Amino acid sequence: MYFNMNLHLTSVCSSSVPHELSFTRKMAPRRYTAFSSSSLSNNTSTRCFKQLPTLVAPSHRSFARSGLLPSAASAVDASNTAPTPVQKTSKCPVEKFTTVISAAAHPVLTTAMTGFAAAPSELPGPPPLSLDALKDVSIIFFEGLHVAMLRFSEKYGPVCRFANPASLNGATSWVFLNSPANIQHVCATNGRNYGRRYLPDIYTYITHGKGILGSQDDYNARHRRLCSGPFRNRAQLQRFSHVVVERSQRLVDIWTKAVREGVSGSEPCSFPPHANCSGGFTTDVATQTQRLTLDIVGLVAFSHDFRQVERVRRDIIGSAGDSRVLQDRLLWAVNTFGEVLAEIFITPLPLLRILDWVGFPHLRRLDEAVSIMRQTMLDVVQERRSALAAGLAGKDDLLQALLTARDDAGVGLSDEELWEDVHDIMGAGHETTATTTAALLYCISAHTDVRQRVEKELEDVLGGKDPSYGDLERMPYLQACAKEVMRLYPAIPVFPREALQGDVLPSGHVINPGDVVFMSSYALGRSPALWPDPLTFNPDRFSPEGEAAQHRFQWLPFGAGPRMCLGASFAQMSVCLMAATLLQRFRFTPLVPNTALIPVAYDITVNFGPSGGLHMRVELRSGRTDGGAQ
Ligand code: HEM
């Protein structure tokens, strides 16, 4: 998940992690909220928005169009990026109501108070104080910004505006862009004007403007440069691919052993076993892929083994986490961090400070989670600093690049700066990839024709051997499936930007300085104007001919522009390699939710909360036991 830590939750403390940890995220799914952009935070009226994605990253179809090659990826990435979606949830109905009302009425109220008219509405949108405005804002509030943007595109077309509740004189707006041509303009053609991510106050509170996700301008550009190198370089990606496959193979071994031992899993299963399979178990695959990707990001970025996959067997048999075990504590911390952050995402800074001072329980949990993650990572940093000081050979990873970086005055990064960067990479890099992989396994398995084509491609290309980086370009159908999954279930659904100066969009609509511009990969991905029969899972949309007919900016799961996801190439590679490794050995049958379209919600990233995870029966394919454990 995308988290930025480094909280200075002063007082707080001491609620300790319970011995039997509950894995809020995957095992006890929750409703989300998450990054929202903006400082809605500057105005209490915005506090209750359920989902205001705050991502901010420029992305491109880097991958999209051209497979996994880093060169292609960077071609789209206009420069540097930032990320994250935000959403926010409040359980207080009164606050929700006042938020909706005040947002709808805002332009009129501010005009009355200040004598300054609200921004001219060259852009379509609901009239202030109208029933329409109330209804529209309610969608944001109750269903999330990503859903609202889809509805707005149907109702108002490619652009629409609302008064910005945080703008006291009504001079700026929230502008929702739903057309690829306008998004191309904002992210590429005039990308410099929109280089800042719209960030809520929680970022200031947690990161003090450090890290990658929550920083802006020169600081962000420098740290993006430092951190993105290892994830773009082709030789590095190739090296990382071995780690992805090796760790996936370890998961295969543990699953194989579980099948051989007759473990049945945590979910009852009424389906008869598949022909050509020799036993299986049921499990929440999303939890297992999260453990897998945490290990992978730890190994590739910091050469550190979080040893999460070792705990997989306990998940399968339904054991609760154990706070005495570091792996379980870390997973608890990672998930709790995202969950709590989502809940307080657009809380204004002054209020956060008060809540901190009074020891608000949410902040105490956040503090606990942060200190577990922080300590884990600082131990790794310390170990590496000592090794460097002792003259031991450095490792070829991201941490090495950060440890040896020097500014013009020869000064290196402080532990605080290091921690923020490392934390962002860990957070941004693992949960997104895990949920995408789990959804990919689900979607392939829920469509028999798709599964058969994938299995045939794997057989033709791999013939039972482990996949490699080089094999991926010979597996276009698997890659198309991954793209189709990201179209329907982008891990981060919205990426907002701030306009520095006034501008005119290709559609002829006017943007004012300070306007917040929201773009949504979710709304684009499900738009009937862009994709025929958009809710149907159809990987053939990403055949070479299908892609040639698409606009470059209609598939943007990694955002676009200077704040685009910096791990896009690595993420696409990892998702496909993990899926290829697992699908060669196992067949998956969705149990819950068992619907064609997976119900999703968003906290900081996509979540399968409504269905309690992605529970599947995992069966060993006959004749595929050779790669398994003893
Ligand atoms: C399927 C997996 C992933 C998806 C869907 C995804 C998506 C995104 C999106 C939408 C953004 C915001 C983009 C924007 O504002 O234009 C973002 C930002 C970011 N992503 Fe990813 N991401 C994934 C994996 C990764 C991985 C593996 C890493 C690191 C290894 C990573 C690191 C980052 C960072 C550091 C940012 C912030 C960049 C900035 O603010 O300048 N992501 N990601």
TrEMBL record:
<dbReference type="InterPro" id="IPR036396">
    <property type="entry name" value="Cyt_P450_sf"/>
</dbReference>
<dbReference type="InterPro" id="IPR002401">
    <property type="entry name" value="Cyt_P450_E_grp-I"/>
</dbReference>
<protein>
    <recommendedName>
        <fullName>Cytochrome P450</fullName>
    </recommendedName>
</protein>
<comment type="similarity">
    <text>Belongs to the cytochrome P450 family.</text>
</comment>
<dbReference type="InterPro" id="IPR001128">
    <property type="entry name" value="Cyt_P450"/>
</dbReference>
<keyword id="KW-0349">Heme</keyword>
<keyword id="KW-0560">Oxidoreductase</keyword>
<keyword id="KW-0479">Metal-binding</keyword>
<keyword id="KW-0408">Iron</keyword>
<dbReference type="Pfam" id="PF00067">
    <property type="entry name" value="p450"/>
</dbReference>
<dbReference type="InterPro" id="IPR050196">
    <property type="entry name" value="Cytochrome_P450_Monoox"/>
</dbReference>
<keyword id="KW-0503">Monooxygenase</keyword>
<dbReference type="InterPro" id="IPR017972">
    <property type="entry name" value="Cyt_P450_CS"/>
</dbReference>
